[in-house]
């Protein structure tokens, strides 16, 4: 099973490219689900078919679905409130019913990931194609599992600190029965959620199972924003297997206006090819009208993908060869290697958080890296950005190594 997530700067045609890719994948024999997590809900209009919160079969082998986070929140609320029900009973508070709720800030991404996980785990599809919305939205979605795990480790540590905290609070309030009805259920729910998020991240960061594809138009600002997205995704361990250049003018037609735009786009895309290599840059030609409906979407996708399988891994080595955190032994210690294409040295900041973690920042993006056991007994001795790769050097702390 493959999962392909599309994103791009607003207005570049991401939803159209997503729908076209799914349509072509289905017509080439893949049982395909196209899933929209974009609140703008443009997928139904592009497909020219009404959608539901459940998968709808549009044609043989092609299913489509619009994620409704409010509906998903209400559907999951009975399970989510279970750890709190006994607390409400103990305090005399009225239980909150699903119909009274709105989705809390940040919960939309959790619900979208849970829904995507359910569809992946179902095994009903060969490929799931996701319209993930603008770049910032996809970054929030993909980084959520690791961010959530970081917070859960502190809120619900394995040493039972939460239970002790609640026990102390309940005693101060004169309610000795609270620990039994709050700590264990809450801790259990948190551990279960963290386990699911860890599995989701494992799937989405595995290039053999998941890909991110970026959509751009041949414009300087859009290209620059797309390059920045590659670097941000790389920081968090996600590679890009293809870029789709949309609305590309060709020489067809012969008039001077079209020829002028074709020349501009040809020069721009030559630079794009060079900068993104070896990531393949596919071309989708400019059309007088937006492709709407399955027939037009299939023709649009066939022009972009040609003989390529839209469900396959299209690229991702070299500059975008983003793998898991790599640690290498050096002559005087260790090095951590992090691929960071399209990132300038001035954008990078590092901070050691205690013995266990290293914080790496690229512009406004930040990632907390949990250090392997050996590196926790080392000091950071330096860092260098070389050939789109950040190398952080560590040397053993003699006092800590002598002790073990």
TrEMBL record:
Residues 332-394 form the ArsA HSP20-like domain. Pfam families: ArsA_ATPase (PF02374), ArsA_HSP20 (PF17886). Residues 1-302 form the ArsA/GET3 Anion-transporting ATPase-like domain. Keywords: Hydrolase. Its EC number is 3.6.3.16. It is an enzyme of class 3 (hydrolase). CDD domains: ArsA. InterPro entries: ArsA/GET3_ATPase-like (IPR025723), ArsA_HSP20-like (IPR040612), ATPase_ArsA/GET3 (IPR016300), HSP20-like_chaperone (IPR008978), P-loop_NTPase (IPR027417). One of its GO terms (molecular function) is ATP binding. The keyword Repeat does not apply. It comes from the Bacteria. Belongs to the arsA ATPase family. PANTHER family: ARSENICAL PUMP-DRIVING ATPASE ARSENITE-TRANSLOCATING ATPASE (PTHR10803), ATPASE GET3 (PTHR10803:SF3). This is Arsenite-transporting ATPase. It comes from Candidatus Protofrankia californiensis. The lineage of its organism: Bacteria, Bacillati, Actinomycetota, Actinomycetes, Frankiales.
């Amino acid at each position: 099973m493959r999962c392909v997530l599309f994103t791009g700067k607003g207005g570049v045609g991401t939803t159209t490219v997503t729908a076209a890719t799914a349509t072509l994948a289905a017509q080439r024999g893949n049982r395909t689900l196209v899933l929209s997590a974009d609140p703008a809900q443009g997928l139904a209009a592009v497909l020219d078919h009404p959608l539901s919160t459940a998968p709808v079969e549009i044609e043989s082998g092609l299913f489509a679905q619009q994620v409704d986070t409010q509906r998903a929140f209400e559907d999951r609320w009975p399970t989510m409130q279970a750890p709190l029900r006994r607390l409400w009973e103990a305090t005399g508070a009225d239980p909150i019913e699903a119909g009274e709720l709105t989705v809390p800030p940040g919960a939309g991404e959790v619900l979208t990931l849970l829904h995507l996980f359910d569809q992946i785990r179902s095994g009903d599809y060969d490929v799931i194609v996701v319209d993930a919305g603008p770049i910032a939205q996809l970054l929030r979605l993909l980084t959520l599992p690791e961010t959530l795990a970081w917070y859960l480790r502190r809120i619900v540590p394995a040493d039972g600190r939460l239970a002790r905290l609640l026990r102390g609070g309940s005693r101060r309030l004169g309610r000795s029965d609270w620990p039994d009805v709050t700590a264990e259920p809450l801790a259990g729910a948190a551990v279960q959620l963290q386990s699911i998020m860890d599995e989701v991240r494992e799937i989405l960061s595995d290039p053999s199972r998941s890909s991110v594809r970026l959509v751009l138009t041949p414009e300087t600002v859009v290209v620059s924003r797309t390059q920045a997205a590659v670097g941000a995704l790389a920081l968090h361990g996600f590679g890009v297997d293809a870029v789709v250049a949309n609305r590309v003018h060709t020489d067809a037609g012969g008039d001077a206006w079209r020829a002028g735009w074709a020349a501009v786009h040809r020069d721009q895309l030559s630079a794009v090819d060079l900068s993104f290599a070896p990531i393949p840059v596919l071309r989708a030609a400019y059309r007088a009208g937006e492709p709407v409906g399955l027939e037009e979407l299939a023709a649009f996708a066939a022009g972009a993908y040609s003989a390529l399988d839209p469900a396959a891994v299209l690229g991702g080595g070299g500059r975008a060869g983003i793998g898991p955190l790599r640690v290498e032994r050096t002559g005087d210690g260790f090095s951590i290697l992090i691929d960071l294409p399209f990132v300038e040295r001035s954008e990078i900041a590092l901070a050691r958080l205690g013995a266990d973690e290293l914080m790496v920042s690229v512009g406004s993006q930040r990632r907390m890296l949990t250090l392997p056991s050996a590196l926790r007994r080392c000091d950071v001795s330096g860092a260098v950005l070389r050939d789109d790769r950040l190398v952080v050097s560590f040397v053993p702390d003699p006092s800590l190594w002598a002790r073990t």
